What we know:
The complex is a heterodimer. By secondary structure, chain A is α/β, with parallel strands linked by helices.
Amino acid sequence: xxxxxxxELTKDYGTKRAVDHLTFSVRPGRVxxxxxxxxxxxxxxxxxxxxxxxxxxxxxxxxGRPYTSLGNPLRRVGALLDAQAAHGSRTARNHLLTLAAxxxxxxxxxxxxxxxxxxxxxxxxxxxxxxxxMRQRLGIAAALIGDPEVVMxxxxxxxxxxxxxIWIRELVRKLAGEGRTVLVSSHLMNETSSxxxxxxxxxxxxxxxxxxxxxxxxxxxxxxxRLRTTEPTRLxxxxxxxxYEPAQGDDGCWAVAxxxxxxxxxxAAIEGIPLLELMAEQATLEEAYLDLTSTETExxxxxxxxxxxxx
Amino acid sequence: MTxxxxxxxxxxxxxxxxxxxxxxxxxxxxxATLFVTVFASSTVGQAEADNPGNDPLFSAFYALNFGQIAAxxxxxxxxxxxxxxxxxxxxxxxxxSRSLFYVAKMAVVGGLAxxxxxxxxxxxxxxxxxxMGEYAIRLEEPGALRAAFGGGxxxxxxALFAAGLTxxxxxxxxxxxxxxxxILIVSFVVGGVAGGVAQYFPDQxxxxxxxxxxxxxxxxxxxxxVTAGWAGVALVAGWWTLRKRDA
Lengths: 311, 247
């Protein structure tokens, strides 16, 4: 199957280094989340992979070959870079038709992807009448037109309504489930955690993390449990005797840092204290990411980005 | 597997016909020229023809002055539509070979401009003469066929000249605000004064093919060749720019 392989990739714009000796691979059959603050180099990396920008150094290949050497590349790789990148005066159908025609893709695919992207009824409308969410759907339709093995989506959920965000999530899961190679960039942590299996995190153009999401969360979590009980005083004493430091939250729950659910469950059973709820706490992707960024000096001056689109 | 040139040409043809401002400019080459021809020759045509020193052949193609503005707009907008909102990225994702993309686009732009240019040029001559009464000339007249054919080629070359410039400057507005004042004012004014140099201007040189008799140093075909040279330089400059720059 087809991987995206980035090796020692470097890109300078004037004196500014946007991508700095970046090396990672995107493997088939899973969704790789591509994270990093605005300006970290995610979009630049994608443009370099597609041969739109020329690398200062290093290489980026798809299935071992540079993108620009692929014949009929839309049948191998589908990419959404910028939902605005379409001529507003063209209809959605004609926009897709120009792409299909150039790569020898049957014109019938145009209707199929329009329907798949939820644009079946507006294919004859000009793109400039589309909302941001509709343009985003059109961009995804364009990415899928060649039934590609490799799919790269840059901020696909940008401008989508809640139904659209769920659609994207299910779509990328389905594409990876079919064995395709899927790279999805985002700066929204909760969003990414809902579909990614693997993470590639950039900071200032450099690779910070390349590991399975589960491993990343575990490596960045401090173990702990949350629990509710009918006898807080007795439980608190038992925990203190064992050297834990339980803390009561506002909602009546107790948080015990450094403990596992197994230890606390057994302790409560021995003491005969009923537990109403016992839950191991794991860091969310957002917490893990912030934990990572607080330890990386290059992030020190970088505030976590809000929901503005990367240029 | 390499990409099919025919497929890329087909794609470029869909791009042109699916944007109204581009296809509209192409239609305007014909429509504006014919409109001006009918209007001018039906009103002042015979009176002008009566003037001493009038070149009836050159006058027959007077309306091409208006058609060429449309041809320039066509060439400029066909290219500039790629530079709007980063549409070029989408295009180059589909056709990563920039040379193939560029040559295919220019072939479609040039081919369409040539077909429409020839139809326009012949039509303007034939229709215009219907109003000229006793002054009418026929296609069999010396130089007439050459002028009608050359006029069509001239329109195509002006469209390609503008297209190449647009690939360099990445904006139809920049090209149109450069070329149209140049043709309407600079070339017209300087052309009367400077004599020698002005005949090498792209519009002045190319229009020599429309004259019945050779004036000055350049022959009709040489003049058209000079315009082809201008277009060629612009096309190569556009190709160079596209290859070198990040999309």
